[in-house]
Amino acid sequence: MSDDYKPGLLGQIKDKLIASKQQWAKDGRLLTGEASSPDKRRLPPGQRLTRDWPVLDLGVQPNILLDRWQLTVGGLVEKPLKLNWNDFLDLPQSDTVSDIHCVTAWSRYDNKWSGVLARDFLKAVRPRPEVKHVVFQSYDGYATNVTLEMFSAADVLLAHSWEGGPLTREHGGPVRIVMPQFYFWKSAKWVKHIAFLDRDAPGYWEVRGYHNTGNPWKEERYG
Ligand SMILES: Nc1nc2c(c(=O)[nH]1)N[C@H]1C(S)=C(S)[C@@H](COP(=O)(O)O)O[C@H]1N2
Ligand SMILES: [Mo]
């Protein structure tokens, strides 16, 4: 976890934001109860489109220099990895275009990402047959959990670039996860370690009242 987290003024403001977001989960804020399905509409229920790109974090935006960056992979895998920046760029590179849906009700269409597809990453890591869950751990102490099935979708990316330029620090650079089919809290910024597990391990928001899966078309905000 982040040892260097010292709440200053910014930290205190963020603590309030976190507290109110946790309260939303208790109150069931933004739930519309509208029925929807992925093939019928692009904008999930209760969402509104934005053209800017809001920044959400816990009050720390870790500054990881590329020559000190590392991504490690552990748990039940045939190939535990410790990747430096060059190792990461040596993996097969792909581009994707996907929409963002944040649980705070903003969506942003047509984001162009570059990086390593989860499917290519999985080929390098080779999870053991008993693996059912994946946990992303980040440089700011954040964590979020998904199933191996969710992580294996064709559109999931370990992204280092957005719209042709390096992903900025505020948006999770050097590398963040992009999970387009789920609320954006599943898309861990500043990813540091990926654990492959045979049991579930709920992350930061999942233990604070947010849904374990977070499918926006089913409006799985809280749970
Ligand atoms: N490491 C880390 N990843 C994170 C978060 C965070 O606080 N720390 N916040 C999550 C939430 S709630 C959202 S909505 C998105 C926000 O990403 P953005 O700031 O690029 O819009 O990042 C997700 N990933
Ligand atoms: Mo979020």
Overall description:
- The chain has 223 residues and is α+β, with helices and mostly antiparallel strands.
- The chain has one domain (9-218): Oxidoreductase, molybdopterin-binding domain (Sulfite Oxidase, Chain A, domain 2, Alpha-Beta Complex).
- Helix content is 17%, strand content 26%.
- It is built from four helices and eleven strands, in the order H-E-E-E-H-E-E-H-E-E-H-E-E-E-E.
- The chain has helices at residues 9-27, 85-90, 118-125, 148-151, and strands at 48-49, 71-75, 81-83, 94-101, 106-117, 133-138, 143-147, 157-162, 165-166, 176-178, 191-197.
- Strands 1, 4, 5, 8, 9 and 10 form a six-stranded mixed β-sheet that branches.
- The longest helix is centred in the N-terminal third of the chain and has 19 residues, at 9-27.
- The protein is globular.
- It starts with 8 loop residues before the first helix and ends in a 26-residue tail after the last strand.
- Residues 1-6 have low confidence and may be disordered.
- The structure holds ligand MTE and molybdenum atom.
- The site of ligand MTE has 18 residues, from loops.
- Residues 62-205 form the Oxidoreductase molybdopterin-binding domain.
- This is Sulfite oxidase-like oxidoreductase.
- It comes from Ferrovibrio terrae.
